[in-house]
Each structure stands twice: as structure tokens, then as C-alpha cells.
Amino acid sequence: MGETTAPPMSSAPSSRAVVAPARVNLIGEHTDYSGGLVLPLAVDLGTTVTWRPVGGATIRLHSAAFDETIELRTDAEASTSLEGWGRYVVAVLRLLLDHGMPPAGLDGEIVSTVPIGAGMSSSAALTVSVGLALARAASYELERIELARIAQAAERLAVGVPVGLMDPASSLFGRKGHALLLDCATEEHRLVPLTPGIALVVFDSGVRHELERSDYGDRRLELERALAAIGTSRPSELDAAAAEEKAAAAGVDEVARRRLRHVVTENQRVREFVGVLEEPGGADLQMLGRLLREGHESLRDDFQVSIPELDLLVDLAYEHGAIGARMIGGGFGGSVLALAQVDETSRLVAAVSRDYAERAGREATPYVCASVDGAHEIDSA
Ligand code: GLA
């Protein structure tokens, strides 16, 4: 028998990984970019970046979803010829470097379970996970709010969509069992406990929204037209009657008035929703349902970002006994959130899916989501 020798020490640096969750917004839609209130939560779909440090100045990332690899140099102006997901990575890297953060070479893999374009913030899950990985790889800590702002700016830089802070903030500050109440003007936030026994069911309509389309930016401009005319930048401080009066007095056009009405009433709905969730005797579920219904109708009629498929899913959810339902995310496609009693979930999913297929002529994909903690490092093994 020969001598036993210890196995050779591996010289390859060990890999590390971070995950950033998707978000589901309970209420507070299209309020973030005018400094309003939002109530999202981080859910158990997410984007994971696994990497090994490689030294040098090259960042190499492979996307499993697109089976595509990009290579960026941290010591040169990033390529602007990239398409698709690579643009988000370039934007995050560029913003971090602009903030004076040190670069570090890495070789990594991006894997995601977040459906793309479904209104669950696949792009924020990507920008937050990449930002966190780049920071960890270069051994620096970024304040979470700083990373949220960078992820928000990255979206604008990458694809020109002037999004708000909600999605990255939710991905970074979410907490299991809670929703995140965020005031987008002050960036103050606190956790609001979710009512136990209620399931969060997301129905992806299968209709894809492309936020790069100008609709999102148009809505924002229309709202800003109304705000400029009535001389305020904080619609969350107005009540509905006062806003109507001011808009009428300022001669604000009908379209801009509707946009303003949605935002003012939606901020109020967020306050009421939080009040109901925090009721000492437990949440009044009928009240939650009423607020979700009003929220959806306001997005459909006043902000005009819904589409017939989303309206149908909302109607079907109520018809089949959901506590409440509304479209979530930017709109023009994407998903609907339904709240249901946990033991009613399977029945609701089956009935809504069946009727939607029959009436819309396409399949909805249901996701029964659980709330999770915000972005963090995980075991890469
Ligand atoms: C998208 C944007 C968010 C927010 C929502 C609408 O998800 O990324 O910032 O504006 O639309 O509430």
C-alpha cells in the first residue's frame, strides 16, 4: 500500500452567490415616480448571480435564460452595442464606477425564476442581484438605499424608462411575512405585517408588456402636466376633492385630470389598506377587497394602463371568490394579483385558469407566492 497523501488544496477561489427577489405590489400603482406611497412585498421568485473572482478587469456573465455570455471591461467605456439583458448589467456597472466604487473581475452565471415582462419586476431583480454581486466581489458594502437608487437609475440608463424606486426598494428591503410601506418622496419605509391565512396568487395573463414602449413615459408626462398646472409636486399630500377643484380651476385637460385623480386616490388607498392590515382586531377582508377593486378600476379608467385580459382576470378572480384582485406593475400586459383564503387557493387557481383559457383564448400562468426577505448572499454550493 502506498503512502496516503492529503488531497491537493484547490487553488480555484470558491464561488459565491446572491439572490434578489421579485416583487408583488399589494397597492400603490403608478404612485412611486411622483413621490407617492407604495406597499409592495418581496416574493419567492428571484434572480441569482453566482460568481468566482478572477482578478483582472473583466466581468464575464452568462445568462441561463438567454444562453448568452457578455464580457465587460471595468477599465474601459462599456460597450453600448449590447441588446436585451446585457444593457442592464452595463448600466449597473457604469453607475457603480461613476459612484467611485472599485471594480473587480468575476466570472458568473445569472439564473432567474422571475417571469420576464409579467409585472413582477424581473428587471429590478436583475439590476439588484448584479449590483449586489459586483459590490460583494469587490468587497465593499453599499447602503441598501444607495443600491436601490442605482438600480432605479440603471433602468433608465439601460432602456430609457423613467421608473420609480418601488421595485428595487422592494427587492432590497422586503421581509418575510411583511409588506413594505415606502414613501417614495422621503424614502422612509417601514414593514407592515401581512394577515396570516391569506394566499397571494399572481395570474400572468400571458400578454407581454414592453415597458420600453412609450406608454409608461407618456403616463408620467401626462401626470406631470397636471401637477405643474396646479403647482404641486407632491400629489400624495392632496385629497381627492381638493385635487379636482385645483385641476378644474387651473383648466387642466381631461386626460391629465384623470391621471391626477388616479394618483391622488391611489395614495389614499395605500393609507387605508395599511390601516386595515394594522387593525388591532385583524384585517377586515371585505375592506381589502373593496380597496383592490377600486384600485383596479382607477388604473383601468383613470390611468388607463389596463388591458381587457387583465380586466377579465380581475373579474374572474372576484367571481370565483377571491378576497380581492387587481392588476399589478406598469400595465399594458403582465399580471393580476388575487388575494384568497389559503384553503380556497387551489379552487380559485383552477376556476380562474379554466375560464380565462375559455374566454381569452390563451393560458394564464398562476404563481402562488410567499413573501421572503430582501436580496442577500446565499450559500453557493
Ligand atoms: C413599473 C415600474 C415601477 C412602478 C410600476 C407601476 O413596475 O418599474 O417603478 O412605477 O411600474 O406602479
Give a short summary of the structure:
The protein has 381 residues and is of the alpha+beta class. It has helices at 85-98, 122-137, 144-159, 166-173, 215-230, 240-249, 254-277, 285-301, 308-319, 345-360, and strands at 16-25, 37-38, 40-53, 58-63, 68-73, 106-112, 178-183, 189-193, 198-204, 324-328, 335-341, 365-369, 376-378. The model is unreliable at 1-5 (pLDDT under 50).
Describe the protein's architecture and organization.
The N terminus is likely disordered. This protein has 10 helices and 13 strands. It folds into 2 domains: 172 residues, Ribosomal Protein S5, domain 2 (2-Layer Sandwich); 175 residues, GHMP kinase, C-terminal domain (Alpha-Beta Plaits), CATH 3.30.70.890. It is of the alpha+beta class and 381 residues long. Helices cover 39% and strands 22% of the residues. A hairpin with a 4-residue loop joins strand 4 and strand 5. Strands 5-4-6-3-1-13 form a 6-stranded mixed sheet, covered by helices on one side. It has a 4-stranded antiparallel sheet with strand order 10-11-9-12. The longest helix is centred in the last third of the chain and has 24 residues. Bound molecules: alpha-D-galactopyranose. The site of alpha-D-galactopyranose has 11 residues, from helix 4.
